[in-house]
TrEMBL record:
<keyword id="KW-0812">Transmembrane</keyword>
<feature type="transmembrane region" description="Helical">
    <location>
        <begin position="247"/>
        <end position="266"/>
    </location>
</feature>
<dbReference type="InterPro" id="IPR045861">
    <property type="entry name" value="CorA_cytoplasmic_dom"/>
</dbReference>
<dbReference type="GO" id="GO:0046873">
    <property type="term" value="F:metal ion transmembrane transporter activity"/>
</dbReference>
<comment type="similarity">
    <text>Belongs to the CorA metal ion transporter (MIT) (TC 1.A.35) family.</text>
</comment>
<dbReference type="InterPro" id="IPR047199">
    <property type="entry name" value="CorA-like"/>
</dbReference>
<dbReference type="Pfam" id="PF01544">
    <property type="entry name" value="CorA"/>
</dbReference>
<keyword id="KW-1133">Transmembrane helix</keyword>
<feature type="transmembrane region" description="Helical">
    <location>
        <begin position="278"/>
        <end position="304"/>
    </location>
</feature>
<dbReference type="GO" id="GO:0016020">
    <property type="term" value="C:membrane"/>
</dbReference>
<dbReference type="InterPro" id="IPR002523">
    <property type="entry name" value="MgTranspt_CorA/ZnTranspt_ZntB"/>
</dbReference>
<keyword id="KW-0472">Membrane</keyword>
<protein>
    <submittedName>
        <fullName>Mg2 transporter protein CorA family protein</fullName>
    </submittedName>
</protein>
<dbReference type="InterPro" id="IPR045863">
    <property type="entry name" value="CorA_TM1_TM2"/>
</dbReference>
Length: 315
């Protein structure tokens, strides 16, 4: 029994769309036996890393596309998934190992003019809806990136940096999938595996334009995110250098104090000290304090830095 497979008639001539989502291994076996699908084809379709392609099989055609997926509770919220469209003369089977908003929009009839009278147009509609979702998710990713950047301006935390890294992963997934879909669109146009009429050709042109726009947007956002991460990495490195500089100054100052106390600690009588008089101890303590203060002032004195600041103020 196919628990996650729906058969829908959205055309007057009884053509079928068989929607198989979240398929299990037993359902894959049932699809193979019931519709005579090749097992290697089914393994390719449910492979999360499968790239887009189109090819002809015995009695049917196969188109594998990459669709965007939003998973709110995941570390990497935005990913992509393959969907296989198996096209028979009287039915089309879409197979996906997970669920996504594109398939929900199609099944809930939220796409205007969607029918099964033309299977090539149905595939192009899926790609068109995928581009719309890619663009929508990219805008959400950009807003999230801006929000994280504002938080990092206040205080640099590891959690925000990890979120930026996950966003970078999402953009990489999007870029790879969009490029694969672009190659698929070009192959649909060149190979003629899917027979397109004039309306389908025009729609295919529009989808290619949207796909290129999404690719350029994903590339731009990826470069921006990488630049933000590099900038904050430089800030962290600079802050670390400042801290190390201060620790070095403190350690050198303490070395002078340690040298003075070590010298009078080698069974040498303290100066100005007789019997139980504390004058020698106070002298050594004062000498350590004065030496440490002078050493600190000398190490922090940088005439060239002050001269540079004055010149910048004048400009």
């Amino acid at each position: 029994m196919l628990q996650n497979v729906k058969k829908e008639e959205i055309a007057p001539d009884k053509r079928l769309w068989i929607d198989a989502r979240n398929v299990t291994q037993s359902e894959i076996k049932t699809l193979q036996d019931e519709y005579g699908l090749d097992p290697d084809l089914l393994m390719d379709v449910i492979d999360p890393d499968e790239l887009s392609r189109i090819e002809s099989w015995d009695g049917y055609n196969l188109a594998i596309m990459r669709l965007p997926v939003f998973t709110p509770n995941s570390d990497v919220s935005y990913t992509t998934t393959p969907i296989g469209a198996v096209i028979f003369p009287e039915k089309i089977i879409t197979i996906c190992w997970t669920d996504c908003e594109v398939l929900r929009d199609i099944s809930e009839n939220r796409i205007k003019g969607l029918t099964l009278n033309d299977f090539p147009a149905f595939v192009i509609r899926i790609l068109s809806r995928a581009d719309i979702m890619f663009l929508r998710y990219l805008k959400e990713i950009n807003r999230r990136t801006n929000s994280i950047q504002n938080e990092l301006h206040d205080e640099i935390e590891n959690a925000e940096l990890i979120q930026l890294l996950n966003i970078q992963k999402s953009l990489t997934f999007f870029t790879t999938s969009l490029k694969a879909n672009q190659l698929l669109l070009e192959k649909i146009r060149k190979t003629r595996i899917l027979v397109l009429d004039s309306d389908d050709q025009e729609w295919l042109d529009d989808v290619e334009v949207d796909n290129r726009q999404a690719m350029e947007m994903a590339d731009s956002y990826s470069q921006i995110t990488a630049g933000i991460m590099d900038a904050f990495s430089s800030v962290i490195s600079n802050n670390m250098n400042v801290v190390m500089q201060k620790l070095t100054v403190i350690s050198l100052v303490l070395m002078i104090v340690s040298a003075i106390t070590s010298f009078w600690g080698m069974n040498i009588r303290l100066p100005f000290s007789t019997g139980t008089d504390w004058t020698g101890l106070l002298f050594i303590t004062s000498l350590c304090a004065v030496s440490a203060t002078l050493a600190y002032l000398v190490m922090n004195f940088n005439p060239f830095r002050r001269l540079g600041k004055r010149m910048r103020r004048r400009h």
